Write the structure tokens for this entry.
Amino acid sequence: MSGYMSKWRFLTMFSCIALATGCGVDSGCDDGMGLIPGVDGGGDGGDGGGPGEVAKSQSLAAYKDDINADEAYHLLRRAAFGGTPERVNEVVGLGLANAVEDLIAFKSVPGSVTTLAESYDDNMPKRWLVHLLEGPNPLHERMAMFWHDRFATSRRVVSGVDDALAIMHWQMLRANALGNYRDFLESLTLDPLMLVWLDGGNSPKDAPNENYAREFWELFTLGRDVLYTEDDIKEGARAFTGTLLIRDNGEPRRPVFDIFKHDETPKAIFPERATADNYNYETVIELTLAQPEAAQYVARNLFTCFVHDHPTDQTVQELADLFVEGDFAIEPVVRTLLQSEAFFSEDARGNQVASPVEQWVGFARTLDMHMASEDSQGFILDRVANDLRDAGQELMNPPGVEGWTEDMAWLEDQWVLNRVDALGRFMDFGPDLDAGLPFHLLPDVSRWVERDVRREMVTSIASVFHLPLTDAEIDIYIEVLDQNGYLAFHLEQPDRQAQHVREMIRLMAMDERVAGR
Amino acid sequence: MNGCKEWLRLNRRAFLKSGGAAMGALAIGDALFARVASTFAQSTGGTGNLLVLCELAGGFDSLSFLAPHNNAAYLSKRPQLAMPASDLTLIPGNTDYGINNQFQFIANQYLAGNVAIVQQVAYPNGNGSHFESQEIYKFGVRDLSSPAATSASWYERLRKTYFNAPFGVLDTQTIGNPTQYGYPDNTFRNAAQEAFGRLAALKTGGSNAEKAIRDTYKRIDELGADLRARTENFTSTGGARGEFYRAAQLASADLGTQIIKLRYGGFDTHASQADANATLFPRIDTEFQQFMDDIAAMGMQDRTTVVFYSEFGRRNGENGSPGTDHGYGGHIVVVGPGVNGGLKGQAVSTADLNEGSLPYYVDFRAVFASCIRDWLGFNPDPIFKIEGETYDENIGSALFS
């Protein structure tokens, strides 16, 4: 894994801009990198304005409402992992503004989904995967994953000891995912799993633990080396004292704020900007949010998550202003991003590598594949969770406090290969090998004996992925259906055909335009 | 993002220059460093030697490997599990310790001068969690909250810093069966596997992300084909088919590999430890012997060093099960013809045995750093001294002759 690429990409970006002068051999100059902020450049696919005009790739202005099917699919992939052809049509019919409202509106989760998810109890990867796959609120799940990666906390510190804390943490992430950032930070600070993970629950006032204070600024609110100093961390650690975990009668540990365990003396935090005060966890959150860098940090990260990795300072500031005006409500920022010209600009298309979980969920949500009742024992899901772990991403168990290293860093050989296994598991559902195929998206089975059906099988799945295949590519997929001419598809026994189709779909789902988005 | 790669490359070059100069300065009056410095002068590519890392996962009981058979504290703390001298190969000229005969091959190698046993190794503020301690060994840092340090194992860091060959580091567990490495194909006649490579090679253009994905596919396809072809005719000197067999397969592929990582589990012997060891120890010893025979058959024996290590040692006293619980300090065993054999580190004393667990006197990074510097010929500082990490570099005496 590339250890040098931060998901907080803009920090890395700045250092690269300074050093990768003249676009080195690899950089190709076509990714918008190295542009001086505020100056429009070659990355905009020619959409960009003259003097005084904002390039489309940086524009937060509303995009046209009547989006086409490809644009609808782009929206669904970025905001909801993926979407079936029916869902794409629905979004086109709604128009952009209504479609975004529809994504944002929280819909009650069917009891069957909740029941299935709860059957996995504290097995968090599986429990969450059920919601990601079958839940009616994919944007909320996507945002919860976004925050999970930013506020990265692992269940491994309570595994076998207090597993309920992992469930509570996950519920806290999902409850706040599109809510108010201030409330979110307060919940996060008092979250029992977080209090264990970053030692906030074990920080005595006579010898405070600096772990939480440091990550609070470095990872959660400001960014590495932005504004805070080592002295601030020492002072901040004193402000965060008093948050304890207590345990009654075998119940999960719960947080309390105990003023007698809190350092009640003045702390000088950001001394050049604020006078020393008797800060506690609430007021230190307030003080942090009062710094412009905090809103900029969130704005930049949300932009990068949904759009592309090179917003200008001006774009970030515009988004940050919106965030502050809304009193740190997350939803308006997301709404603006999903409807923006930047979101649909050339720079924002196909420029991200989906994480293993995102690709797997997107695959299922695009091909309309679901948890089958035959998997009530969780047999397949168990293997999927293991495949995704082996592909580099085990939900609720990030590798460290910084979460997963995203994007190109997902492209480790073995991780990539394990994605293929995960994609194949879906089609393992059911007592017969063929039970899990998305038959409704394929030519009718009665036609599988026709020679010409092979091309149609390939193009029907390609169109679901919005994948424009060339004839040369189609021919290669037909060879997979024919198993290199060894077992001609249309002449093959019906019980063998499903295996051929499965291999063709699985391979197509690994196309760089499907694994990328 | 590609600009970052460029930056890294520049950084690496800049480092190698300054690293070489620093080593030159140290070389004055120090024979060991003089040799290392000359290695640096020859090539930035190191010695090209092979380092095999064998992780004994679960917590290897060092006191069952190198037993202080005469020590009264040992005998009283382990009434059922203490190893009697009759089960040991005694260390020549030393009345205190013997190597468990269940490791007969390693014991013989010790007598031949090819084994260094670094005693009482760990890291500061021991952590009793398997998971955390294994990560500390894997990432080569004490502070696991350090993001940059914990994004890749220390051996991956080493590869990326010095020998960026795609197969420079191979892990037998991730590779699995090398004769089948590549796109997981369930078709006849490799139809999907071939299509995977052909599709990636066919296309051009697209976004940087799309190009990067395709480049990964091409690499997998090309090297997978290479690895499969190079390992399919591998023949071993013996019949064992464990992780060491995989390691021998990978070593035979001649793909510029400098580190092979493998892992044996089952060392978490909380109960019935004697029975567990009676199965585990001879199995590893036998499979290791076969590996060394295979390596010799390839003519690589003089270029190979194998390091056995574990996330922690076990408790000095046995529990009622009878087994031993998680301890702290443990021994690292380094084997190979280039090794300066003998007992290294800090010998286990009565005072150490009177503790609950063996303490630690040698930082594990000092051992790996010596392997990097003296066996592979690279400067270990950029690998372990990152993100503010420091460690005691003293082992006591040189591990390599």
User: Anything to note?
Assistant: Residues 356-515 of chain A form one domain.
